[in-house]
Automatic annotation (TrEMBL):
Keyword Transmembrane: yes
Record keywords, A-Z: Membrane, Transmembrane, Transmembrane helix
Protein's recorded name: Uncharacterized protein
Extent of the signal sequence: none
Membrane spanning stretches: 7-31, 51-69, 76-96, 102-121, 141-162, 182-200, 207-228, 240-257
């Protein structure tokens, strides 16, 4: 990832931090009360503001500092944060009534989309790490299965609503025209994850480089879903079941990430040793 410019990292991160702060803090302080939203959707907006300030901004700052020190893990986390912001602020831009923070919403969406796109373009110039074929196949199956399962969950809500000619319950509660999460997942995220799985089987460089970013993005989304579900649930037993499921899912992603990192480090060390042996000979 040596091709990623430190100037771009620092500049885009500074702009993103400022805009996310401006977009989310007013909601937390009550300056923006989301008066035109339904009670359900207003609560979700405030919880997302909390996550933006309490989770994403610290991670974005930490990842930027690590990336500027040329830490590979920092650049992966930076890209995952930008992907998360791109996903989140698509919803802010199109599913929250026009308010004083609209320009900040658009700015957050813009800088995160272009930053994540920049990360992908730069990775097309690299060969990517060498990973054992066995691990590649397992990760490919995992990504493809994940995409199919989540798509089936959404379609299990969408298809009955279509056949009965009614709105899905989540859309009715939020008072929206449609559920932006359905759109983003079915049109972009899940196909992207599925295609990444397919490309992993072919050992394509972009898929090899993006895999850690996808796993970290899953962690951020799991934390988001878990936090909102936990806050919206009043039954203590169900709350802790939700926390348990989210914790297990996050641990699985981190374990997969650790296995991927270990395999990468071993292959790079082996390549370095072989190169040194060739020079000595």
């Amino acid at each position: 990832m040596k091709h990623i410019s430190n100037n771009f990292l620092a500049g885009s991160s500074a702009i993103a931090v400022l805009l996310v702060f401006c977009a989310s803090v007013p909601g937390l302080l009550g300056i923006i009360s989301y008066p035109l939203e339904t009670a359900d959707w207003r609560a979700q907006c405030v919880m997302q503001d909390q996550l933006n300030v309490g989770m994403v901004l610290p991670l974005l700052l930490v990842s930027t500092l690590l990336a500027l020190k040329n830490k590979v893990s920092g650049k992966y986390l930076w890209a995952a944060c930008m992907g998360y912001l791109a996903y989140t602020f698509t919803i802010y831009c199109f599913c929250i009534h026009f308010n004083e923070m609209f320009i900040a919403y658009c700015g957050c969406w813009s800088v995160s989309v272009f930053s994540f796109g920049y990360f992908l373009v730069m990775h097309q110039r690299e060969n990517g790490p060498a990973i054992p074929m066995g691990l590649l196949k397992k990760m490919a199956v995992y990504f493809m299965s994940f995409a199919v399962v989540v798509a089936m969950v959404w379609l299990s809500e969408i298809i009955p609503a279509i056949t009965s000619k009614r709105m899905p319950a989540s859309v009715e509660r939020a008072g929206l025209f449609t559920n932006a999460v359905y759109v983003l997942d079915l049109a972009i995220l899940l196909p992207g994850v599925f295609i990444t799985g397919m490309l992993l089987r072919k050992q394509r460089a972009l898929a090899l480089s993006v895999t850690p970013v996808v796993l970290l993005f899953f962690v951020l989304m799991a934390a988001t879903v878990g936090y909102m579900s936990f806050q919206n649930t009043r039954e203590p037993a169900l709350r802790w079941r939700i926390a348990g499921v989210v914790t297990i899912f996050v641990l699985i992603q981190l374990l997969l990430l650790r296995n991927w990192q270990s395999a990468t480090e071993k292959r790079m060390l082996l390549k370095s040793d072989l190169a040194s042996a060739g020079l000595n000979n």
